[in-house]
Amino acid sequence: MGFFSWLLQQFGWRPTIRTAPPKNPDKADANNKREDPSLARRAEDSLVSRTSSEKSHLKPSRRSEPRPKHYRRRPGKSRLVPNRRKKATRARHRSIPFVETQGPAPYRYARYGSRTGHYLDLSRDGDETRLQRFNLPIFHTPEELANWFGLPLNRLAWLVHRFSGGRPETEAAAHYHFRWVKKRLGGWRLIESPKSVLKSLQSKLLRELLDKVPAHGSSHGFVKGKSILTNARPHVGQTILLKFDLENFYTTVSFARVVAIFRSLGYSREVAIWLGLLTTSALPGNLRFQEQGPYAIVPYFRRHLPQGAPTSPALANLSAFGMDIRLSGFAKSFGATYTRYADDLTISGPSDVHYALGTIIQLVYKIVRQERFSFNHSKSRILRAHQRLTVTGVVVNERPNVVRADFDKLKAILTNCLRHGPSTQNRNQVEDFYHHLQGRIAHVSMLNPARGQKLSELFQAINWTR
Predict the structure, then answer these.
(1) Ramachandran region of residue 186, left (φ > 0), alpha (ψ -120 to 50) or beta?
(2) Fewest beta carbons less than 10 Å away: which of 2, 81, 335, 393?
């Protein structure tokens, strides 16, 4: 015991050590007034004599102090707080995920529970009310699905690799043709084209099922009645234009997300799994790498939407439905406009958007990441009115128009075809040069009918026998 502590005890005073501010400051001030000032001065001297380690215990931490009522978070960092749903007063009905059955399998190719030793019936949790909402075909078991396709069930099971663990063993056993394509800005893209049998099933699935489910209104890519022109029109005459690009758009959509899409439409878990296997791809183990080594194949490891299948664009649009809802509502709150064409996101607005530009960009990144997509930051752009504003190749400064450089280049090709013959202008060895030029002229005519008319007159005057 120190000398000063012993002396203070002789006087009958013991210091009280507090680690936090008093709850009632008025009462604490009254207690301090009752104490002798000389004794308090002596107590301060005793506290000074203590070691530095003891001082750290006596000093309250800043975090323990309550924040004042007028405290505000430092500006510059925006937080995206999700809306919390209130607890329902009534208990919700939860569908049973599966039913264990005693005895034989409830249907062919039913899944077997290895832990319980019973078959699992996953065909009872469908919702026909949801299916009837979009007039979708109704089936609950794999056999009903095979009958709808007009195939034997064992043939359908072969297409989904039911006998090989859900993945082809070799490239020859796969139901897709794999082709690597080099990207314009570097890297490689894998094109997975379904073979004839699987392609016919996917085309039927697209026409008679997926085409009946509408995409979000802000989605313009691969939607009937919409095009790059409808995607560009909402941004005409805006002052600020923000352009974002999603990286690996199709491969980001996993097998689980595709199954969840079919489940949300009302199909049973068993049918949703089979439909997910029919519309996704799993790479074989002997697929060859490209120049950059095995890293090119990393995004394709898990089962994913194949780029090249007829059903992939529709399923990708449905998987981005939640992102479209959030981004369109978010842009509207700032007085801006949002559209999406496949993996191209565009937000535009008046000059007032300039003051909230940092917040908008930051929150767009957060929303996209929360929806389990990723950005290609090298393609993000901020364009202003004094620049050429383009949305999916359409100029939108004053009205939808074609890029002048593209028009001049096509006009020069047609003029040289007229003077020297078409065979001298097919430098890229296009297989059907006649229809290739027709398609490019139709593109210009859609955006600028007057310029398209001039190009059509040149095209009609060309002698294609030269």
Answers:
(1) left
(2) 81
Structure tokens at 242: 């923000």
Q: Residue 310 and residue 199: Cα distance in Å, rounded?
A: 7
Block means of pLDDT (10 residues each) for the chain, 466 residues, are 62 55 50 48 48 44 48 50 51 56 86 80 93 95 96 95 87 93 82 96 97 96 95 96 95 96 96 97 83 72 94 97 96 96 96 91 95 92 94 95 95 94 88 93 95 95 88
- 374 vs 197, 366, 369, CA distance in Å? 33, 10, 6
d(CA 452, CA 134): 40
Helix axes 269-279, 142-149, angle to 10 degrees: 50
- pTM reported for the whole predicted model: 0.77
Encoding tokens for residue 430? 């296009």
Radius of gyration of the chain (CA): 34
Q: Which residues are within 8 A (CB) of 320 and not within 5 positions of it... i.e. 6 or more apart?
A: 216, 219, 340, 371, 373
Cα 405–chain centre separation: 33
Cα maximum dimension of the chain: 122
Give the whole-angstrom CA distance, residue 398 versus residue 385: 10
Task: Look up residue 168 and give its amino acid.
Answer: P
Q: Quote the CA–CA distance of 261 and 136 in Å, as a whole number.
A: 14
- The neighbour count for residue 439, using CB atoms within 10 Å, is 9
The span from the CA of 55 to the CA of 60, in Å, is 10
CB 118 within 8 A of CB 102: yes
